[in-house]
Amino acid sequence: MRIALAVLVAIWALPATGKADLALDPRLEEAAEALARACARAGDLSPLRHGRAVRLEVTRAGAAVAEPQVAAVIASDPEMGRLRLLERIASYEQLRPSHAGFGVAPLPAGGFVVVALFGRVSVEWEGELPAEVPPDTLIRLRGRLLGELHHPQLHVVPPGGLPVRLPLRRDGEWFEAELYLVSRGRTVLEVMGVGPHGPEVALLSEIYVGEPLPETQKLARDAEAEGPRDVAEMRADLDRLRAQRGLPPLRYDPLLQQVAQAYAEELLARGRFGHVSPESGKVSDRLRRAGYDFRIAGENLGEGPSPAVAHRAIVQSPAHLSAILEPRFESIGIGVARSDALDRTVVVHVLATP
Fold it and tell me: Which pTM was predicted?
């Protein structure tokens, strides 16, 4: 109880320092506790480097958080570990986190794993969004965007399928859609909205059809060992995804790469994450400034503790995968920026057809 009280006081003190207000979310706490236990079993923080393991626990707990972020420390004192994580959360001010949860687990060799999950609640559902359903289930979705987000879109990737945008009905500020789940396996549901910095993910969730949610420990392997670690490997993975759908590979364009790299470095340096920048504008502005003539252009953004996790955040998003599989795009540039101090990597795709 003493530790929990100290955390609450620290969170409530953040607005006085000019940082965004945070609320403790019991569902994020549940997910953070599960991740802390997974780290304790592994003896290190490697489970947190697998983006799906993090999202799995958020889904299992039923937390409706847009793009949940994770931070963790190994500390001799849990309370001091939490305070260190609060300082790290404060560095994400531009990402506007609104809710957080903390988990603690003892390590067999001594000390504690302290995990923080935090993010922004951007969608309100009428009713619960299920994590597990039997095959041939019809889910009627009704929700609304929160904060400054508007123009909702719902995207779905069924097991082994192509991304699909669901038709919406509008009822004032509420949106409604029907999702018919037939095939067994993992279906990814994504809610998109438009905010001050352009399109952004309001919610990314998984629904398991005809099978239980996998155990976190089975997913919690080092992401570096199973995902693209550099631009060349990212390009190869994108080519593979397009080839599976009968599409030609994207040509790698050096000028697009320069634009993507410059924007990745800008986002990292400014602590931002969005498609519209006060300094450089939209992707179309950045391309025109670089002297690139295009017929169509698009942009994908991903972030995480490593290039592999940031890359997977893009390809596992239905809306971002739709851009990768857009037949009209012919060329791509990929930028990667990394901060060891923040344990943060930003990946930018710039896609275009000249």
Answer: 0.78
